[in-house]
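re: that chain from earlier
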Amino acid sequence: MPWARPRARLSRDLEDLIAWLAQRTDKTSICRLLRVSWETVQAVVMRVVGEHLDDRRLEGVFDLGVDEISYKRGHQYLTVVADHHSGRVLHVAEGRTQAALQSFFDLLGPERCAQVRAISMDMATVWRQPCADNIPQAAICFDPFHVIRWANSALDAVYKAMSREHGTGTGDRDWRRTRYALRAGAERLDDDHHTLLRRLRRHRYALWRAWELKERLRDLYRTADPANARAHLQAWCRSAERSRLRPFVTLARQIRRHFDGIVAAVEHGLSNSRLEGINAKIRLINRRGYGHPKAENLAAMIHLCLGGITIRPPTETR
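^ sequence. v structure.
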């Protein structure tokens, strides 16, 4: 019928209203408002997404981001691919495997794969082989958050190696204050904190040195010129290796193994922060639906809410 989608028992206007509400509220509210079942709402979402999801969303895609998200107990994951510029979710696949990412590249096709300039990801090795096979020209950009987390872990290891009796010498409260001064960003510290750091430089140089190395690594993303990112990181690795602080020597070796991807993230100005924001919205969608028994059901909701699909309610003047 012209007023209904194929194999649908509801009119197109009612289905559009259900889909418009599904973008904004939970299924229970839709069921109570429109007097339909949960199964009906999910079936409508699947039909509407199937009608609106086409290859046009894959045109003009140059900078990608890939990440995984756990959606169910038992380490069940979804692989999510998004466009950095539009912020739209391009692809959702079940699993955290090479095949999940390969399914996106198969959908993208060789011509559009050749247009991809960069792709951001975390340090997991599972994504690298599909990227090497399908987009060898694209720069792999490792997420800065994970690099700074490594640095904070190394700083914590140096901090914990020193007993409280050999810290500031003024008790537990000041020792915790010292820990805050070490872990917080330099731009967030007040004059008292900087005085404390100067005192550490005089009396506990190794601890101050660990803080200074952490801040210099942060400067790679904060103040360093992207054109000089490679030289900045090479100089940092040499300084970390000469520091004789075992956690930072280990960190320098770890960074050298991921060197090109870390530098590429600075040069292209990419991180996985957009993917982390998308993951937060996916968790909300999953909670709003009180969980989804099947991955394809959740994937359809993700495309409906985060895939750039625009639904006009029938009451709106066209």
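The chain has a mean pLDDT of 89.
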